[in-house]
């Protein structure tokens, strides 16, 4: 699975939010500054070629839908980030957020509680 470019990710966020639709509806979901319609249409076509979207012709309009879920992409993307930037260590990832003051001690405790809860349910 190829990593998405920023415009492709922006388009996929709109697709995941709506589900099946045509390019104009996806464009309405994108925050300002919006890309031109033709740019988004090209991005959508590229996403289809890469296997992220599928399409069907209804009348004279193509409807596009995700071929991969947001959860699947997130899993692949995060695995790649951890592998490429944090020596394949989730501990290093968490430490990065602690050092950047992006996660508090309370949030870390919540994460520990979640992990312990899942371990007890197994």
UniProtKB/TrEMBL annotation:
InterPro entries: BlaI_family, WH-like_DNA-bd_sf, WH_DNA-bd_sf. One of its GO terms (biological process) is negative regulation of DNA-templated transcription. The keyword NADP does not apply. GO terms for molecular function: DNA binding. Keywords: DNA-binding, Transcription, Transcription regulation. The keyword Transcription regulation applies. Belongs to the BlaI transcriptional regulatory family. This is Methicillin resistance regulatory protein MecI. It comes from Adhaeribacter pallidiroseus.
